Amino acid sequence: xxxxxxxxxxxxxxxxxxxxxxxxxxxxxxxxxxxxxxxxxxxxxxxxxxxxxxxxxxxxxxxxxxxxxxxxxxxxxxxxxxxxxxxxxxxxxxxxxxxxxxxxxxxxxxxxxxxxxxxxxxxxxxxxxxxxxxxxxxxxxxxxxxxxxxxxxxxxxxxxxxxxxxxxxxxxxxxxxxxxxxxxxxxxxxxxxxxxxxxxxxxxxxxxxxxxxxxxxxxxxxxxxxxxxxxxxxxxxxxxxxxxxxxxxxxxxxxxxxxxxxxxxxxxxxxxxxxxxxxxxxxxxxxxxxxxxxxxxxxxxxxxxxxxxxxxxxxxxxxxxxxxxxxxxxxxxxxxxxxxxxxxxxxxxxxxxxxxxxxxxxxxxxxxxxxxxxxxxxxxxxxxxxxxxxxxxxxxxxxxxxxxxxxxxxxxxxxxxxxxxxxxxxxxxxxxxxxxxxxxxxxxxxxxxxxxxxxxxxxxxxxxxxxxxxxxxxxxxxxxxxxxxxxxxxxxxxxxxxxxxxxxxxxxxxxxxxxxxxxxxxxxxxxxxxxxxxxxxxxxxxxxxxxxxxxxxxxxxxxxxxxxxxxxxxxxxxxxxxxxxxxxxxxxxxxx
Amino acid sequence: xxxxxxxxxxxxxxxxxxxxxxxxxxxxxxxxxxxxxxxxxxxxxxxxxxxxxxxxxxxxxxxxxxxxxxxxxxxxxxxxxxxxxxxxxxxxxxxxxxxxxxxxxxxxxxxxxxxxxxxxxxxxxxxxxxxxxxxxxxxxxxxxxxxxxxxxxxxxxxxxxxxxxxxxxxxxxx
Lengths: 592, 174
Hints:
The complex is a heterodimer. By secondary structure, chain A is an alpha/beta fold. Chain A has helices at 14-18, 21-34, 75-84, 127-132, 137-145, 148-158, 170-179, 200-207, 209-223, 237-252, 283-290, 319-331, 333-337, 370-377, 411-416, 435-449, 455-473, 480-494, 498-502, 505-513, 515-523, 549-553, 579-583; strands at 6-11, 41-46, 57-61, 65-68, 186-191, 227-232, 268-273, 314-318, 347-354, 360-365, 387-392, 398-401, 425-430, 538-540, 559-560, 568-569, 589-591. Chain A folds into five domains: 6-99, Glutaredoxin (3-Layer(aba) Sandwich), CATH 3.40.30; 127-337, 3-Layer(aba) Sandwich (Rossmann fold); 347-430, Ubiquitin-like (UB roll) (Roll), CATH 3.10.20.600; 435-523, de novo design (two linked rop proteins) (Up-down Bundle); 537-591, Alpha-Beta Plaits. Chain A has 23 helices and 17 strands. Chain A has a five-stranded mixed sheet. A four-stranded mixed sheet of chain A has the order 2-1-3-4, covered by helices on one side. In chain A, strand 11 (387-392) and strand 12 form a beta hairpin. Chain B folds into two domains: 2-81, no CATH class; 95-170, 3-Layer(aba) Sandwich (Glutaredoxin). Chain B has seven helices and four strands, in the order αααααβαβββα. In chain B, strands 2-1-3-4 form a four-stranded mixed sheet, with helices on one face. The longest helix of chain B is centred in the middle third of the chain and has 19 residues, at 103-121.
């Protein structure tokens, strides 16, 4: 393959395309040819460099320079300055402040990137780029010198636990599946990343699809499978595209298909696309969906390793789990196990969202504490506000208060604190968040996504939601908290699958850590965070100059007052939409 | 017999406006979907997705066609189609607007955007406008949480949305 000294990545998201990204790309190619640089500088297409608001955007590597807002006419100047003379063209440089909300920035000092190592660095649609970064070397090593048992031993020694959330040791799973006698066996990748706030897997699939493919081939060799499926959610069209390209390219080089690398081992792989059902991320539901049925879970045992897809032994792991495998095989189990804590080895990707200064993807060694993540990596809470809670583990996870910030992030500590690792969504909430409202919000999600097969989840979570809605409206009554607690216990112990068993977690953890807020809603009819509309009222204070902006913008005409005189809000007419507060230029509207 | 009674269920539950798609067009779409995806039970979700994409929804006639091809009762097909959010058994508007109602978008101002969308379109979640232009619905996480609040119109994704931007975005669509 050819080596280039410089790579230019051009953003081809719809917004940048609309602003002429393809024209810029053509102009760049022409100018590079004209300047005789075409053998030194490569132009590639990539999704999402920034937020596209200043598009078209491009990123120049290895310099890491981010250019935005150039037109076709600017290209000759840009090529001459940057690629011929080696000077950064400051005119088009995106200033640091504006880059802060990109999904995946340069790693901070507390991060270690194993799974995300290639994302944003290589062209995901070119297998040669992956091979240049040691890609498929692990597969060659395994096929040439490891027995399947040795692969499983390495996996066990690495201590890698399932990154889908439950944290079952991956090596043990492979061992069980290898021990199953029935054939054929299936290797399945769970790419149905549906947890709100989680998008780590999407970036891996979009940015480094071959790592997942390679991990799956190694898993197939270990358990003795010749056929695999990647079940990807339909909300990720770009990931489906990159995966299909990756599979085709791997086939073309003999890395998938018959007699891989002349080893006699055969394996092939196809992508299956979901159709919008959160519960399909549960492994038995996922397999039902691949079979063309409703994606409903079934009781386990039998576990998939014994009876999975079409009742045949199947190994289901998540995207991140597979993406770790090549590195473990290449650099050794000891290297991987040297990161993390005693029982939680290696690194974990997290998607940071919510009220922090720096949102996006990170990858950290397990055992790091939440304070380092929130204050060092995410650079603290927005607008200098105080932290209220960190929601970890997705809709089946829980909310942790400030006191838990100094505990390590590992599977055991999180379970002890009443939440789960989950797939890695981290939503940080500031002091303006109402925890009862958040609990209600998660319960709505569960209600939407419950498949309805088992009664505790279908009916029980509905009862919980009704109580929470009532509390938020200001109609909470004595005994509600106790009823919620009872429902939590019963739903947890009687639901069929992980969705129902985890469904009470957001309520249980907020009841545990923020009980006072529930009590304030129920007994004092007050929402301390001033969020729940049934418990707040808008008032105008003396700072009002009588400019009439609020009265003119009020959708229900609840505000009255003469020009240049204090205005008044009629609480009975007011629908608490908050528009008056947004439009007031004098901060004269307050919530009581 | 099963198939016959299931037809009844399908017709009751789908919208009467469904008569807008001709039978020959439905047959053509189903044939293309089967040619692309295959004709076994495991190909059912991809087949229905293709039909949904081509016609905007899955009309009763399409269920009949697929039922013949896959030798599967319509009741089973309908049970699958009604399970998945992206498959619709009712006609949709020309443009589908989806609002991400997940927590990360919720905590960064999603509620205000949702109110603005509803006010502008005068629609509730799941409703289609009288002129057949818009269908509005909420969706669970779209996985672009770093730029929330997020809405999608057809296949275009818009991030960092404010209530004030809603009109401008909708104006881009015919």
